[in-house]
Amino acid sequence: MIIVRNLSKSFPPDSRVLQRLSFQADEGELVTLLGASGSGKTTLFRCLMLQEKWDEGQYIYEGNDITKAGFSEKLKLRKQWAYLEEKPKLNPKKSALKNVLSALLFRKSWVRFLTGTVSEDDHLEAMDYLDRVGLLDKAHEPVEKLSGGEKQRVAVCKAMIKGARVIFADEPVSGLDPEAASRVMEDLQSICRKHKLLVFCSLHQIELAEKYGSRIWGLSGGKLVIDIAGRRLTQREKELIF
Ligand SMILES: Nc1ncnc2c1ncn2[C@@H]1O[C@H](COP(=O)(O)OP(=O)(O)OP(=O)(O)O)[C@@H](O)[C@H]1O
């Protein structure tokens, strides 16, 4: 699904963050990305979402070379990609349902997006997604009254309903208690498997990366120092990353 060859990224004047990264990642994979603070996890995601200019490298997405994608191609691609942040961008005053519906309208026509016209089918689809992440009973609650984990699950719903094929989850469980963090990771794992999405998830917690990643990457010194199938990391592997 994604093939990257020799991706390098630096910031002026001389901060070389990513150095000649090469990898392939496919649908149905949940890639957990570990790395110390400042190792370049967010920068890698931003490069893969074409929000940062690459210094060098080649980017193949679904068989097409998108290294030099123009503005309109980038817009189309961005509809297939979703970014989940530590603090999800949601409208706090609106209900969970309305937040999810706003992503559904994004997928439909511009007229409906601008007028906010919602059909009964849209409504049912949004409720169905909320049900899948166990939030049916909170559908009408304003988002500001939801817990951190529930907010993150609304954001996961938005990504799914938008029709995202690749999800970049950037430390989505930071600040959540262990139970809420596990629930968010279970949702990501489940949508990844059921909908054959490609999910990249950066984490600071090694145990979560080991438990939920079908693949584990470790980023250090601008390089992918670990790229293995999901399993317990050895002490040596941990030392390579941190
Ligand atoms: N726009 C920018 N301009 C200059 N330097 C930047 C910019 N964005 C990131 N950096 C630098 O790139 C390095 C990697 O940052 P990045 O945010 O990707 O790390 P991270 O692994 O996501 O960190 P954290 O775990 O703390 O979120 C840092 O040294 C950061 O200061």
Automatic annotation (TrEMBL):
Keyword annotations: ATP-binding, Cell membrane, Membrane, Nucleotide-binding, Translocase, Transport
Domain of life: Bacteria
One Pfam family of this chain: ABC_tran
InterPro entries, per the entry: AAA+_ATPase, ABC_transporter-like_ATP-bd, ABC_transporter-like_CS, MetN_ABC_transporter-like, P-loop_NTPase
One MF term in the entry's GO annotations: ATP hydrolysis activity
Ranges where the ABC transporter domain occurs: 2-241
Signal peptide interval: none
Name listed for the protein in its UniProt record: Phosphonates import ATP-binding protein phnC
Organism: Paenibacillus mucilaginosus 3016
